[in-house]
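Structure tokens please, single chain.
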Amino acid sequence: MASETPESKTNRNLPKRVGMLQRVKYVAINAFLIFHLIATPCWCIPNTSPLIPICKNLVRPYFVWSGLFQSWDMFAPNPKSANSYMEAIILYKDRSSQLWSFPRMENLSLTQRYIKERYRKYEDNLQNNDNSELWPDAARRVARLNSDAANPAQSVLLVVRWSDIIPRTDGSYDRGPWDVNVFYSYPVKPEDLK
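Here you go.
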């Protein structure tokens, strides 16, 4: 009988390692799916139980980070009662300024709307004080998009403009006057522009 070489021993153990790797992949994929099957309903259902806010707080960092958060307030229980959009005011080193608008769905083509719908969702959530941890990153991004080496951005102001939707007695709606609020100011650092 021929003696066994180290190479043949490795080949004999290969199916065990491949089998173990397959099992680890299987467990990881299933854990990911189970997490989402539980976390998504916990995130989306209305606050009717004291356990729901606890569940939402547990999964919130992941949902915000991944962009998977949902906002059902367009439909119920309290539909949005205002039209709103965001802009940024960029103040430059030479003391000039520029008004920059986040993508607005009503100003985009159908194809662009499909591609940039996430911006609308991001913008809706960015206005919320509960998401204030996103404001510095948004301001840095605006500064990077609107800056050059000769005249760098020095400060970014995040601005929300809104108009209340006013119900009329006949069931139709009127638009209220437009209001504005500068809700965040960010002093741009040189390293933010890299």
